[in-house]
Design a protein that fits this description.
Strand content of chain B: under 5%
Largest sheet of chain B: 2 strands, antiparallel
Order of helices and strands of chain A: H
Shape of chain B: globular
Helix content of chain A: over 70%
Helix content of chain B: over 70%
Shape of chain A: rod-shaped
Strand content of chain A: under 5%
Number of strands of chain B: 2
Number of strands of chain A: 0
Strand order of the largest sheet of chain B: 1-2
Distance between the termini of chain B: 26 Å
Number of helices of chain A: 1
Oligomer: heterodimer
Radius of gyration of chain A: 20 Å
Largest interface: A-B, 26 and 33 residues
Chain lengths: ~45, ~240
């Protein structure tokens, strides 16, 4: 019986899930940086 | 070493930034060796054939899903009891990684179950309680973000995390308490019937997922700290 499909679906999905989490970590970091910049701009306007 | 020194978001931010890359590096190394053991060294299973190799991610992901929930609940308890800001932030940072590993455990379990049991899913006690765990993670994430004041979100989510703790013994003992399709524990404190190469590969992957989780949680908590503390002087000085 060929089990390649089940192995690929398991390992492939895990790799994709981990890649998505890494991407969200990078995106969240960028969002936090943007919020700080906005805060600095507001302070400069005051 | 004064541990309370690192309970301040400002000092923990720097410590987390220094530690996170190391944990990611160790995780990558352990995963590489673990997969080498899992695919090259470990022999083919006499009954299940090659598909048993799903255990090298399924079991570590399932263990991590429960362990991360326990740690998340412990941080939640600390934040409720001592009103610590960092405890609540750590609980928030662990939730997405815990949800990810719960999803991976369910998904890989389904693709292991189809060729071995003949079905992707059954409303079996172990699988159902693991699905409940995924919903608990989703509930925690949703509740913590449902309030304009993040501290109120922290408290509400912390309560949910503590209530949800009751699900962990249910998941663990479900295979003993009920007649389940899912098999009982193969690895126990008293020993295991697994081949040494299979066990080595699996334990290496457990440690890889563990170190990855720490790295991801530390990276995420840094962003949470920046978001929460953005009006403070030390963040503006960064």
């Amino acid at each position: 019986m060929n089990h390649g499909f089940y192995l690929w679906m398991s390992y492939g999905a895990t790799a994709i899930a981990l890649a998505i989490e890494m991407a969200t970590l990078v995106a969240r970091r960028a969002r936090a940086r943007r919020l700080i910049e906005e805060e600095r701009d507001l302070e400069a306007q005051d | 070493m004064n541990w309370f020194y690192f309970s301040s978001p400002a000092t923990f931010y720097r410590l987390a930034g220094w530690l996170a890359p190391w944990f990611f590096g160790v995780a990558a190394l352990l995963a590489a060796v673990g997969l080498y053991y899992g695919f090259i060294v470990a022999p083919t299973d006499a009954q299940q054939g090659e598909v048993y190799r799903v255990i090298f991610i399924h079991v570590p992901a399932a263990w991590m899903s429960m362990f991360l929930y326990f740690v998340m609940a412990a941080y939640s308890a600390a934040s409720l009891t001592f009103n610590t800001r960092l405890g609540a932030m750590m609980a928030r940072s662990l939730a997405p990684t815990g949800a990810l590993f719960t999803f991976v455990a369910l998904w890989t379990g389904a693709f292991w179950g189809r060729p071995t049991w003949g079905t992707y899913w059954a409303w079996d006690a172990r699988m159902t309680s693991e699905l409940v765990l995924l919903f608990l993670y989703f509930g925690f994430i949703a509740l913590s973000n449902a309030f304009e004041d993040p501290r109120r979100g922290d408290r509400a989510a912390a309560l949910l995390a503590l209530i949800g703790l009751v699900n962990l013994p249910i998941i663990y003992f479900s295979v003993h308490w009920w007649n389940t399709l899912h098999q009982g524990s193969t690895v126990k404190l008293t020993g295991t019937s697994m081949h040494v190469a299979m066990l080595t590969g699996m334990l290496l992957m457990v440690f890889a997922f563990w170190t990855y989780s720490i790295g991801a949680a530390l990276t995420r908590v840094r962003s949470i700290i920046l978001e929460r503390e953005r009006r403070t002087r030390w963040v503006r000085a960064l």
